Each structure stands twice: as structure tokens, then as C-alpha cells.
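Input/output pair, single chain:
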Amino acid sequence: RLTWGAVKASPGYRIAATDGLSCDARCYPVQIGGHLPGVVVIPEVPEYPEFQVELVAALSLRQHLSLEDGDSLEFSTFEPLSVRAVLFDADGTLVDSVEAFRIVAEQAAAGKYRVTREAVNEALNTPGGAFWELIVPEEEENRSNVIAGLRHTAFELWDSVLNAHVTMIPGLAAVFECLTRAEISLGIVTSSDGRSLGPLREAGLLEYFDVILAAADVEHLKPHPEGLLQAAKTLGVSPEEAAYVGDTVIDVQASRAAGMASIVVLTGAGDSARLSAAGPDRIAASMSQLPKLLELG
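Output:
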């Protein structure tokens, strides 16, 4: 770990002011309270107090850490992520499919039930993924049969919705090329049936991956670590030598259970506050930032 003086002496990430009312600043990614990702911001102004620290996080630190005035709070710089393999989730990470989940559910519901993006996000961030239980009222007659029917209908509709609405996350080819040039092995571990990987297959990008595991390939779905550990074993790396990239709390939980580094992207079902609370090692706005997070340039 670096001392505070060494951190301040390093360049960090510079934020340039865009108007005459603000100032330039440097920011440094840190881990707050042992698990929350955040940044230290140092404004570049004359006579800025030497030992003043401004912490920024995606959620309320006072509330999440139960802080009172006068409490001590520890933060530390991140250790570099040095990995030999990177595993990826599929939906919301490699393919933009979360809105398609809402569309197919809306079509299956056929106007009888209100389907919202919020419900989709909640289900995708909750182990078990009980989406229809969030949609169908508890007082619904024969509720379990109704839910089973909706699931079947959505499954049957998925291919047409997928073809019309699911696309690749931008910039994947450049990211995969950068990782493979650095001799990092790649894999995919998804709790879906894998149909949403079609856009990557059509673009010829699945050739970058040495292992692809879908729901049918494992006994236990995420957040159980089975799929991640199986993929790492296939790639010939230990869990500590791998990172898992996803977009939900479940992906963070699976990473932790497997003993892998956790990286989340804000392109799917998780927002920055929800994902921060889960305690990933890194948060990226988009997949294009992954090489920099792995210090590959």
C-alpha cells in the first residue's frame, strides 16, 4: 500500500475544469472501509490543506457505514489487478439485452400485468431471479400455474425478441484484442441458456474465448462459484489469477465466492450505488475501460 504522501505525489487521474466556475482536480481510486470502491479528489487550488481528504462514492458513506461526526474512516489504495485470465458474464456485460428482457416479459404478459425495467433490474440482481413473482400479484388465483405459463411463453418468444432487440456492447473487439495480446485467456460464464451470445457469434468474436459455460453446463447457477471455478480450471489458472466481469450484484457475489477479482460494468442491470454496496474491486462505466483497469494501457 502507498503512503498518503506517495499517493499525492503520483499523477492520478486528472479532471479538467470545463468552465470558469470550477477548478481542475486529480482523483485516485481507493477502497473505503475495507470494501467500498470510491475516489479521493484533490482540487488543484492554491493552499489546499495538505491533510484534507475529500472522498466520493456512489452511495452515502454516512448511511452505509453508520458514520457519525468525529468517527474515523479508513481507506486504502487499490492493489494492481494482475491476472492471467478474464471471465465474462454475458447479458448486460457483453450484450445489451436487459431491455429485451423487459420487452419479452411485456409481450408474455399481454397487457395483464405491468412490467417495468425496475422489476427486471431487481430480479437480475437477486439470487434465484424470481422475476414473475415480482410481477404477478400474490392474490392471483392459481398464481404458481400462472407464473409457470408466463415463463414458458417468454421462453418461446425470446428468439424473436433477441433478434430484434439484442446487440453487442460497443468496443468489444478492441478489448478482446488487447487482452489476448497481453496473453490473457478469456472465458464466458453465464446463467442464461446462451442464446443471447448470437451477436458475438455473428461478429466472429466468440473465437477469442477458450471456454464458454451456460446454464446447462453447471449444476449450480451464480452466485454459486461452480461455473467460475470450472472455467478457471479449464483455462489452467487459479482463482486468484482470474477476474470476473459482470453487471449485477450476483456477479460480484459469484466472484467473491470463487476467490476471484470482481469487476463490474454499468452497462446492464446494476447501478453504481447498488454495485458499490456489493464491494467489487473495480467499477467501469463501459467495457472499453477494462484494459486500463488491468493496467494494459
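The longest strand covers residues 25-32. The radius of gyration is 21 Å.
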